[in-house]
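Re: [ENG-882] Designed sequences occasionally contain unexpected residues at chain ends

Forwarding the minimal case from QA. Structure tokens:
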């Protein structure tokens, strides 16, 4: 989008076409590029236009609301399949919840972005293959490879969602960076909507109870399920229609949390030596260590995706650089603990999966940290950091597919 803006900044018709093709990406790219485009009278016009449009809330047209609500209803019916078909709920949701969530979002963005038929078929075929594969795996609740397959296929489904949001794979990765930021925006929009829905639900149940009509069972079985199915879709639609509503809030949240998380991780690493906890022998502590690493990695990526200029965010670049270096230290400790456990107690699917995942994250973090240090030394810009972020997404995809498909077979579905 940025390159297209640069090329067509003097062409009103082309700018209008770009804006209508993807308002969310256009706004983000325009605000990022405005410092270098502000000499153009057309850029000044677009700045005023976007500022004027940002004053109110846009609810969109009936057609798009129809698509959103239709997909939400389908997702709700899919979530109720255990009741309709007499399927065990634990069996069903553990294997299929990701398909309900990401399937509806992927379908919406396939329609929204007018994806080519071949891309839509690719997403549908990959999703259907994953759906059939997971549901045909042996139903052993104690199987480590089953749990690994379900968890890693969640990432595959998330990647397909990104493919639909970004309208394909692009080497420059601007749309994928926008997708990473969109995930944070989705969380920021979804949480208050969920809180408002919870408050409304409590009031509704309480009011009906006052007149002697207990509706808790019906409400939780149907209204709540369909509401939860609609939540991500409605949140996504509101962000697309009103990027100005959540964009600044999400960046403020990231800016506030980055230094706090940096302080937390630094203190946490220091306290470990006095706590008696040991990731080398304590399996639960090692899992918590890895969860911390993944959370910090997501915060780093979300924060970088939302940065618009180096001049305004020099302090944030320093914080993110320190956070990246500290995360590398956490990763090295986690990797050494996994290698120790492999040497002491042998090979298991969980240990191999965590070893591979942590190795990829370490390489990824090293590339991001190197690019961030390059910015501080004046040798690189934000595009280099974003390229380092985006470049490993296909590698994670390949690893997730390998773990999902091969590990159950290699380890005998254990």
């Amino acid at each position: 989008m940025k390159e297209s803006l640069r090329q067509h900044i003097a062409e009103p018709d082309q700018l209008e076409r770009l804006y209508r093709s993807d308002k969310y990406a256009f706004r983000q790219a325009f605000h990022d590029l405005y410092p270098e485009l502000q000499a153009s009278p057309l850029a000044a016009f677009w700045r005023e236009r976007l500022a004027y449009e940002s004053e109110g809330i846009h609810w969109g047209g009936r057609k798009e609301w129809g698509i959103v609500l239709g997909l939400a209803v389908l997702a709700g019916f899919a979530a109720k399949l255990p009741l309709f078909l007499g399927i065990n709920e634990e069996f069903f949701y553990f294997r299929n919840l990701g398909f309900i969530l990401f399937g509806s979002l992927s379908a919406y963005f396939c329609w929204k972005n007018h994806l080519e038929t071949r891309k839509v078929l690719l997403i549908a075929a990959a999703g259907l293959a994953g759906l059939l594969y997971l549901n045909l795996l042996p139903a052993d609740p104690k199987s480590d490879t089953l749990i690994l397959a379900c968890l890693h296929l969640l990432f595959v489904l998330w990647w397909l969602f990104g493919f639909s949001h970004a309208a394909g794979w692009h080497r420059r990765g601007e749309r994928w960076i926008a997708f990473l930021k969109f995930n944070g925006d989705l969380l920021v929009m979804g949480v208050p909507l969920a809180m408002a829905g919870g408050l409304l639900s409590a009031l509704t149940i309480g009011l009906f109870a006052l007149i002697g009509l207990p509706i808790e069972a019906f409400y939780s079985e149907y209204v709540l399920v369909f509401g939860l199915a609609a939540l991500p879709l409605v949140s996504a639609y509101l962000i697309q229609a009103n990027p100005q509503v959540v964009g600044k809030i999400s960046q403020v949240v990231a800016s506030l949390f980055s230094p706090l998380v940096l302080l937390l991780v630094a203190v946490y690493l220091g306290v470990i030596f006095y706590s008696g906890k040991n990731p080398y022998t304590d399996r639960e502590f090692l899992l918590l260590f890895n969860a911390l690493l993944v959370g910090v990695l997501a915060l780093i990526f979300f924060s970088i995706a939302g940065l618009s200029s180096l001049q305004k965010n020099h302090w944030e670049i320093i914080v993110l650089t320190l956070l990246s270096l500290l995360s590398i230290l956490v990763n090295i400790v986690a990797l050494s603990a996994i290698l120790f456990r492999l040497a002491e107690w042998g090979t298991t699917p969980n240990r191999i999966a965590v070893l591979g995942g942590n190795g990829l994250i370490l390489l990824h973090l090293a590339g991001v940290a190197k690019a961030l240090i390059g910015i501080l030394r004046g040798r690189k810009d934000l595009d280099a950091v974003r390229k380092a972020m985006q470049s490993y997404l296909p590698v994670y995809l390949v690893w997730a597919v390998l773990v999902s498909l091969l590990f159950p077979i290699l380890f005998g579905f254990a």
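QA comment: On inspection the terminal residues look reasonable. The chain is about 85% helix and 0% strand. Proposing we downgrade this to a documentation issue.
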